[in-house]
């Protein structure tokens, strides 16, 4: 299975939301990282065949999904960012409704709904109105509707917004269990959402792809670019102006500050092991600010 995004651009009027975006994907989980406004939702909507690109094409196993959206839709599950449930329906009613909208045979759909409710730990609440569900439960109903047709391509847009930490972890485990044999694309601006989950990472900003790589390669590339030093607390605002600070921890001896920089920022700064969060910050701030790698 191969999903190919080939030089895709999207303009809203004069606003260029995506520019010359290309990506080749096989099965596994792609973590699509980018700050708000980067163009993630726009890309997801194009992949979900809900929006046409202004230029470029998207193919699934060689079939152009822009011209033949039905081919992909049969194999597509999509959980949009602003997924709305019908609060007065219970989970079974809602999923049966969605199955009908998707044109699934109802006999098959009913069996599948039972399986999904079990798998998503919703069976006990399946007859309660969705309006009374927690954020995490609603999100699981959203995932259930995206999985009704056992999709080969699953697109989830910022799925953990509004979930508490426990629900986030549950959601991540759920996706991890579903990853084999599917292309899963998960967009987020929260690195920890994909840290344990993504087999590949794409970082985008201002409609452009900045990096597409394996998480482990991203970490190797970041070696020698993350530093720690201790500064008096009052110096932090100034430091944040002059450097990219990924984290700052208050300790008894002052602020322990994590700085991302191509060079040692201060003589007493110590080089430390990078995380994916450091890599993300590097791509969206240090690297672009300087117009490329400074060396
Ligand atoms: P993200 O999902 O990464 O936050 P979006 O794809 O929603 O990014 O938005 C990308 C850019 O396109 C943003 O600058 C946003 O303001 C703009 N945009 C998104 N949707 C529209 C629209 N319908 N009309 C005009 N501009 C839009």
In brief:
This protein is α/β, with parallel strands linked by helices.
Model description:
It contains ten helices and 14 strands. By secondary structure, the protein is an alpha/beta fold. It folds into two domains: 3-217, Rossmann fold (3-Layer(aba) Sandwich), CATH 3.40.50; 220-289, no CATH class. Strands 6-7-8-3-9-10 form a six-stranded mixed beta sheet, sandwiched between helices. Helix 8 crosses helix 10. It is globular, with a radius of gyration of 21 Å. It binds adenosine-5'-diphosphate. Adenosine-5'-diphosphate is lined by residues 12, 15, 17, 34, 36-42.
- The CATH superfamily of the largest domain is identified as P-loop containing nucleotide triphosphate hydrolases
Topology as a string of helices (H) and strands (E):
EEEHEEHEHHHEHEHEEHEHEEEH
Bound molecules: adenosine-5'-diphosphate
- The average pLDDT is 91
Label the structural class. alpha/beta
Q: How much of the residues is beta strand, in percent?
A: 25-35%
Instruction: Report on the biggest sheet.
Output: 6 strands, mixed
Helix content: 25-40%
Instruction: Using the CA coordinates, give the radius of gyration.
Output: 21 Å
Kindly provide the name of the CATH class of the largest domain: Alpha Beta
Q: Helical element count?
A: 10
């Amino acid at each position: 299975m191969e999903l190919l995004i080939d030089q895709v651009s999207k303009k809203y009027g004069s606003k260029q939301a995506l520019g010359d975006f290309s990506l080749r994907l096989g099965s596994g989980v792609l973590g699509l990282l980018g700050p708000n406004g980067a163009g993630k939702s726009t890309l997801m909507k194009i992949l979900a065949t809900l929006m046409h690109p202004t230029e470029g094409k998207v193919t699934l196993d060689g079939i152009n999904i822009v011209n033949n959206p039905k081919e992909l839709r049969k194999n597509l599950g999509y959980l949009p960012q602003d997924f709305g449930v019908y609060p007065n329906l219970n989970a079974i009613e809602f999923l049966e409704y969605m199955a009908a909208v998707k044109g699934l045979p109802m006999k098959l759909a009913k069996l599948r709904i039972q399986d999904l409710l079990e798998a998503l730990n919703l069976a006990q609440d399946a007859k309660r109105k969705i309006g009374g569900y927690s954020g995490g439960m609603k999100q699981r109903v959203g995932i259930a509707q995206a999985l009704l047709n056992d999709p080969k391509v699953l697109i989830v847009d910022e799925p953990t917004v509004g979930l508490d930490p426990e629900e986030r972890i549950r959601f991540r485990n759920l996706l991890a269990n579903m990853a084999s044999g599917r292309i899963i694309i998960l967009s987020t601006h929260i690195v920890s959402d994909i840290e344990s989950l993504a087999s590949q990472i794409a970082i985008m900003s201002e409609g452009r792809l900045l990096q597409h790589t394996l998480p482990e390669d991203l970490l190797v590339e970041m070696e020698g670019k993350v530093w720690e030093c201790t500064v008096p607390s009052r110096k932090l605002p100034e430091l944040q102006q002059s450097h990219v600070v990924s984290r700052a921890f208050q300790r008894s001896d002052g602020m322990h500050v994590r700085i991302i920089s191509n060079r040692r920022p201060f003589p007493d700064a110590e080089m430390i092991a990078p995380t994916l969060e450091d890599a993300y910050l590097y791509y969206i701030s240090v690297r672009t600010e300087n117009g490329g790698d400074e060396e």
